[in-house]
């Protein structure tokens, strides 16, 4: 099954369940589920191939799902599998996520079907700026604000800022996740992983787990996974397993994260890290642990491996890492799942704080950003858990119900 189907199927099931429970149907349901605007473009770029200039075209997308509560907001992904269906599902997820953490944004997502590592810096810059030229009419500080996602980074945001500013004047707030030197926020880079660790700690405490006695496995050691690992260690947890696309490493006594980071910087992967033994990505998911953090791809935990997952808590750092069949099996076994909607919302929260700083032209200290982020995530977690208790449902269903109700209410108030 390709990634597009995984995203749409997983979210479709959870949404249908929440809509049915909320008794939202007919045009009201259609309005909440349909995109406001879907833009598909062809991006021409001249690439150097065997010493010659060759014209290539790439498909680019921006899906603006809903802006009832504020400007569209969402990441920009550069990956060969990017397509309209996947972008649409991820745009919707952003609408629910911004509503859940109660920030004045809607939801969007964009991307280009490209393997960015196969382009050099000049080519990546040209691709990004051509994409921005064509998208400029629909993005903007108060219209739609892109941010980094898989395959993009602060440099890509700086190129968008530059291109957009040529026709609109210097507008730092048109993108978030920028380099700090160009109006980016202190703390943005580590925000998603930091939020994941904060929620893992909160839920572990509720279950009377002692961090020092709690083993943690993290799948994915990119932006989110590595910063979650650093923050988990700072909170006193023991990381016994880590992995990336090449495979994983295991050490019962705990993996020193600074050494893992240095090893990845030097060799490009975790494989061969001193003091660890190799494991596969599949084995990592089946380790007996207190906490599992999937921080890589969609659809990682399925009906095929859920029975072998032996943890008490799953914190969904990645978007949609658990299929709905696996979700049911795990919930029945009493596994506590902190859903993606809440678990990785630290990224969009920090993006919101960056945008606010840009509007005010007044940068905040890193501590201020991370403190506000942790407070908001903690408060949202309390609200979701209270609703879950009240309605006798799991945290995911409660999160969706809360988010959908807020968007629906905004639509009713605005009257469109
Ligand atoms: P990234 O590209 O920086 O890192 C991804 C990591 O996953 C890498 O270590 C990669 O080697 C690993 N990986 C890739 N394929 C794998 C596979 N088949 N098996 C195991 N590991 C694999 O991406 P990221 O920014 O860390 O994002 C990770 C996830 O978190 C994505 O689902 C993304 O949508 C989600 N997310 C990210 C943010 C953010 O702020 N970056 C915010 C919210 C959600």
For this entry, give a set of tags.
Rossmann fold; 14 helices; 416 residues; alpha/beta; binds nicotinamide-adenine-dinucleotide; globular; single chain; 2 domains; 47% helix
Detailed description of the structure:
- With 416 residues, the protein is of the alpha/beta class.
- The protein has 2 domains: 30-173, Rossmann fold (3-Layer(aba) Sandwich), CATH 3.40.50; 191-338, Rossmann fold (3-Layer(aba) Sandwich), CATH 3.40.50.720.
- 47% of the residues lie in helices and 18% in strands.
- The chain is built from 14 helices and 12 strands.
- It has helices spanning 3-21, 26-33, 84-100, 121-135, 154-168, 188-206, 223-234, 257-267, 281-285, 324-332, 340-343, 346-360, 366-391, 395-414; strands at 37-49, 52-66, 72-78, 107-112, 144-148, 215-219, 238-244, 247-250, 277-279, 291-294, 313-315, 336-338.
- A 7-stranded mixed sheet has the order 9-8-7-6-10-11-12, sandwiched between helices. Strands 1-2-4-3-5 form a 5-stranded mixed sheet.
- Nicotinamide-adenine-dinucleotide (NAD) binds next to helix 7 and strand 7.
